[in-house]
Specification:
Elements lengths: L10 E8 L3 E4 L2 E10 L5 E9 L4 E6 L4 E2 L3 E6 L1 E8 L3 E14 L8 E3 L1 E11 L26 H11 L13
């Protein structure tokens, strides 16, 4: 009896792209993930996107997905995820894939190379108010106990966000 030999299928790859490499706390970034053959043809695959959940928070996905807590699983040729910056730092984002099949030829891919990128989140609130946030204040007849302003509300808010306090938890007018 002669053993059967099977030709080894081609390798595939993944690509990952972000809409911005740097953003402020409160802003969103769109991550686009794709599965491809080695020659760049679209491939259907089981993809897993992982991200630093301490810095980025899931907002939405344009495909049917599973997962949570820093991991999104999608079976498709491509998908996009929107993530919101919640804490300052450098967030790693990576994509892995298995079970790839090239569209058109139905050729199975024996392996899929992963890909990764990162985004930097600055410790500044999105849409920060850099204007003069002064209030007159009143200390008896002197009237000199006011808040000098000059963006101090934004600075305090940015520090609170960095400590994990979310915008909806803070009344900026009372800062």
């Amino acid at each position: 009896m002669t053993p059967q030999m099977h030709a080894k299928a081609a390798s595939g790859k993944t690509t990952i792209a972000v809409s911005a490499g740097s953003l402020n706390i409160g802003q969103t970034v769109t991550v686009t993930a794709k599965a491809l053959s080695a020659s760049g043809d679209s491939a259907y695959a089981n993809m897993v996107l992982t991200y630093d959940a301490g810095i980025l928070e899931f907002v939405s996905c344009n495909a049917t997905y599973g997962g949570g807590g820093g991991s999104i699983s999608v079976a498709s040729d491509s998908f996009s995820v929107t993530l919101k910056a919640i804490s300052a730092g450098k967030a790693s984002i990576s994509l892995s894939a298995t079970d790839g099949v090239i569209y058109g030829t139905e050729e199975e891919l024996d392996s899929m190379a992963g890909s990764s990128t990162s985004v930097t989140v600055k410790n500044e609130a999105a849409g920060s108010n850099t204007g003069n946030n002064s209030s007159a204040g009143n200390n008896g007849s002197s009237g000199s106990n006011g808040n000098a302003g000059n963006g101090s509300t934004t600075t305090i808010f940015g520090k609170l966000v960095g400590l994990g306090v979310h915008q909806h938890d803070v009344d900026a007018e009372r800062l």
